[in-house]
Write a structure and sequence with these properties.
The complex is a heterodimer of chains A (about 575) and B (about 250). Chain A has about 575 residues and is α/β, with parallel strands linked by helices. Chain A folds into 2 domains: about 375 residues, FAD/NAD(P)-binding domain (3-Layer(bba) Sandwich); about 120 residues, Succinate dehydrogenase/fumarate reductase flavoprotein, catalytic domain (Flavocytochrome C3, Chain A, domain 1), CATH 3.90.700.10. Chain A has 16 helices and 23 strands. A 5-stranded parallel β-sheet of chain A has the order 7-3-2-11-18, with helices on both faces. Chain A has a 5-stranded mixed β-sheet with strand order 19-17-12-22-23, with helices on one face. In chain A, strands 1-10-9-8 form a 4-stranded mixed β-sheet. In chain A, strand 9 and strand 10 form a beta hairpin. By secondary structure, chain B is α+β, with helices and mostly antiparallel strands. Chain B has 2 domains: about 100 residues, Beta-grasp domain (Ubiquitin-like (UB roll), Roll); about 140 residues, Orthogonal Bundle (Fumarate Reductase Iron-sulfur Protein, Chain B, domain 2). In chain B, about 35% of the residues lie in helices and about 15% in strands. The radius of gyration of chain B is 22 Å and the shape is elongated. Chain B starts with a strand and ends in a 9-residue tail after the last helix. Classes of the chains: A alpha/beta (about 575), B alpha+beta (about 250).
Chain lengths: ~575, ~250
């Protein structure tokens, strides 16, 4: 087969991903007067942002007047076990309220307080009720609002069902990307002045996950390949509550909003076990703590027959549950034949979010490669070792906007995107992406994908240890080698061929998996979402250390990096003792 | 846990040709149609084209016709069917391949609907807006829409009369969510009468029946929109009052 040709498309700013971060970045860059092109793997409006259910965290202090950005900052840092990028946490806490109010002015609808203000619900490890929400489908509201705003903003164009498989540089600066159309396999060369990776997470490398087929960590893998540094890759979040039964629905998310609205966790003996793990915050402890608690209960034989625990909200009235948690009610009724107004749910941890990702400058979202920006789940720093619920939606808005503005500004006055790309690099990348089609008898990509998922589920679970991680790394390196010989599962057609698409996605998953295992091996302590049974204590020496992943001629390297210390006034905000929130009962 | 086998018939093909192909799928407890289709994709036909994302009925990607009925595959338990079932692509939209159709027309329509437009005063206000829950409750139902386009698929106006100027139920929902938003000020009635074509809906309520979000599309969106348009254009009393009063306050903007 002769090398296929490609169509060349030019834009000022290219955005990979059309979730909350990508769309917010696109709007910001276009409002700065740039031509923006958003490319996404699925249809517009289907991004994983819709799975965010509970709400968006912002210190609007509509419910608890004591709430300020300092408290939100302190909660975020403490939740992240202090290895967050403190400047990102500060910016995030300061700017979230503005971004939420802006979203409302763009047409988003939120539930209201009795005074008519945006209502805020309590959530895990947030000192005060802080999550602006609409029922339990806040992510959909955010995405739909941004989607509508983006398509009505001059200068924004969207290419749907496109997979980017290579980032291209010219003179050290990001200058383009290669992609294929999923529908027919035709190739596109995007030339751009700056590129924003907003492609989300990598949860698909685990078997039990709340993530969709899309979350294969493409953005992190592409940026890594282009020479950008990654950080905190050992930090993946197990959401404490995913569905466990029936088997077909295992892993589907059960919103933290259930606990926010008063849901309690019990083991099979009916004991409210969180009393033993976090008597202060109980069910509303941080996600790493609750997930490990459930894991321990099940491990100690106190789980349900299907290997979970019970989550019970039946003490609320049916009307209240249906109003505040409508999609949970529907989801359990439809998929598990359980009426949550009458019965308890069965839940267990499920992979949900990766705190690690592309290392970025806190002010601009620029990676260590000039012209390459990242925002949202693909970027790292804000959440440290554990993300608080509700902080991802505000993350998307705050840093999406900043990345969009900075990417637009980086182009300067000239809008030239005429950088010289290396034709050999282009043809090599095209040959590599077409290669699986040439191997009808090659490895089945779905088998490889399943083996990656098995490996990660077994070797990088909630509680890890050195030897298991080592063995997992060996297996992933073996899978790397086998992926070299990956086919499509038989068909040579480029027309909407999921076998081929998966063969390409598997490459990204392997980079993410390797980075996770290598980083987890070198962090010899337990901190936040990273728990090691061989190093069960938190090591104070590692409190200001992040692990950086980088590409070298000899393969992937992981090295420690010492962060700048927290300034005095922020340290004070963290150490301050805030009054507890005691709600007035009004029903 | 392997319970039994399912004879799953999936429509395979492209714009040139296609046929139903039969696959044997081992059924596990709690399996939904999407699981069965993805099992076929991973084990028997890696080039089987299908769209899906969240697998939790929140994104609206896996729309298809299961035994001829428009449904989300992720929300269709196998147990509801016998040992045989047939999955075909949505019929109203042009086919791309297998279960994947070209739904881009919907995105073009959405672009034509003028977006949320608050008043100048509200936009200029530095104070956060106040709205009451009962006012936002009106639009919350419409904003539940996950854009699965099943309502568009089942709508006989779109399905059988392709050239009729009608935006379809999904976009009646969209227009209703804007028109009834407490802070929106734009008048979309001329559009409803014109290219959105609300008059073409003859209230068969098929769209309401297939909506996985249980939005009462016809009763709560289309009929009130029809009434708004009728008040403006076809109500003789309103017309006479406007004539006498010399006001166009309740009338359509020119």
């Amino acid at each position: 087969m002769s090398a296929p040709g490609y169509e060349a498309v030019e834009t000022d700013v290219l955005v990979i991903g059309a979730g909350g971060a990508g769309l917010r970045a696109a709007i910001a860059a276009a409002e700065s007067g740039r031509r923006v092109l958003v490319v996404c793997k699925s249809l517009l409006g289907k991004a994983h942002t819709v799975m965010a259910e509970g709400g968006i965290a912002a210190a609007l202090h509509n419910v608890a007047y004591q709430d300020t950005w300092e408290v939100h900052f302190a909660d975020t840092m403490k939740g992240g076990k202090m290895i967050n990028d403190w400047r990102m946490a500060e910016i995030h806490a300061r700017e979230s309220p503005e971004r939420v109010i802006e979203l409302e002015r763009w047409g988003a609808v939120f539930d209201r307080t009795w005074q008519g203000r945006i209502h805020q619900r309590p959530f895990g490890a947030h000192t005060y009720p802080r999550l602006a929400h609409i029922g339990d489908r806040t992510g959909l509201e955010l995405l739909r609002t941004l989607q509508d705003r983006a398509v009505h903003t001059d200068g924004v164009d969207v290419h749907m069902e496109i997979t980017v498989f290579k980032l291209l540089k010219a003179g050290g600066r990001l200058a383009g990307a290669l992609a294929y159309r999923r529908a027919d396999g035709s190739l596109i060369l995007y030339r751009c002045g700056a590129l924003i990776v907003a492609s989300g997470g990598a949860g698909k490398m685990y078997r039990v996950t709340s993530n969709s087929w899309e979350s294969t960590g493409d953005g992190t893998a592409l940026a890594y390949d282009a020479g950008a540094q990654l950080r905190d890759m050992e930090m993946v979040q197990f959401h404490p509550t995913g569905m466990v039964w029936p088997a077909g629905v295992r892993g589907i998310l059960v919103t933290e909003g259930v606990r926010g609205e008063g849901g309690v966790l019990r083991n099979k003996d009916g004991e409210r076990f969180m009393e033993r793990y976090d008597p202060e915050r109980m069910e509303l402890s941080s996600r790493d703590v609750v997930a490990r608690a459930i894991n321990s209960e099940v491990g100690a034989g106190r789980g349900t027959p299907h290997g979970g625990v019970f989550l019970d909200i039946t003490h609320r009235t049916p009307d209240y549950i249906k109003r505040k948690l409508p999609s949970m009610h529907e989801q359990f009724l439809q998929l598990a034949k359980v009426d949550i107004t009458k019965e308890a749910m069965e839940v267990a941890p499920t992979i949900h979010y990766i705190m690690g990702g592309i290392k970025v400058d806190p002010e601009t979202g620029e990676s260590t490669v000039p012209g390459l920006y990242a925002a949202g789940e693909a970027a790292a720093g804000l959440h440290g070792a554990n993300r608080l619920g509700g902080n991802s939606l505000s993350d998307l808005l705050v840093f999406g906007k900043r990345a969009g503005e900075a990417a637009a500004a980086s182009l300067g006055k000239s809008a030239s995107v005429a950088a010289k790309l290396d034709p050999e690099e282009i043809s090599a990348a095209i040959a590599s992406v077409m290669a699986p089609l040439e191997r009808p008898a090659g490895e089945n990509p779905f088998v490889l994908q399943a083996e990656i998922q098995e490996t990660m589920s077994k070797h990088a679970p909630i509680v890890r240890d050195g030897p298991t991680l080592e063995a997992g790394l060996d297996q992933i390196m073996e899978l790397h080698a086998r992926a070299e010989n990956c086919g499509t599962g038989g068909s040579r057609s480029t027309a909407f061929n999921p076998g081929w698409h998966t063969a390409i996605d598997v490459r990204s998953m392997l980079v993410n998996a390797e980075a996770l295992l290598r980083s987890a091996l070198v962090r010899r302590e337990s901190r936040g979402a990273h728990a090691r049974s061989d190093f069960p204590k938190t090591d104070d020496q590692l409190a200001d250390v992040n692990f950086i992943v980088e590409k070298s001629p000899d393969g992937m390297v992981v090295k420690p990096w010492r962060r700048e210390a927290l300034p005095e006034f922020l340290l004070e905000a963290v150490e301050h003792s805030y009054t507890r929130y005691t709600p007035e009962e009004r029903e | 846990m392997h319970v039994s086998d399912l004879d799953l018939r999936i429509w395979r093909g492209n714009t040139n040709a296609g046929e139903l192909v039969s696959y044997r799928v081992p059924v596990r407890e709690g399996m939904v149609v999407l699981d069965a289709v993805l099992w076929v994709q991973a084990n028997l036909a890696t080039d089987l084209a299908v769209r899906w994302n969240c697998k939790a009925a929140k994104c609206g990607s896996c729309s298809a016709e299961v035994n001829g009925f428009p449904r989300l595959m992720c929300k269709s338990p196998i147990a509801e069917y016998g040992s045989t079932l047939t999955v075909t692509p949505m019929k109203t939209f042009p086919l791309i391949k297998d279960l994947v159709t070209d739904v881009s027309w919907n995105y073009d329509v959405n672009k034509q609907i003028p977006p949320f437009t608050p008043s100048e005063k509200d936009l200029a206000s530095s104070e956060p807006w106040r709205m009451q829950q009962r006012d936002v409750d009106r639009v919350i139902e419409f904003r539940k829409c996950i854009e699965c386009f099943l309502c568009q698929d089942v709508c006989h106006v779109l399905r059988e009369h392709a050239n009729t100027p009608f935006y379809g139920p999904r976009f009646m929902i969209r227009i209703a969510s804007l028109e009834m938003h407490p802070k929106d000020t734009l008048d979309r009635r001329p559009m409803l009468r014109g290219k959105a074509g609300v008059g073409y809906c003859n209230i068969t309520k098929c769209c309401t029946e297939v909506c996985p979000e249980h939005i009462k599309i016809t009763d709560n969106a289309i009929i009130p929109l029809k009434e708004r348009m009728d008040d403006a254009y076809f109500d003789p009393v309103q017309w006479a009052l406007r004539r006498l009063g010399g006001t166009t306050k309740n009338g359509p903007k020119k």
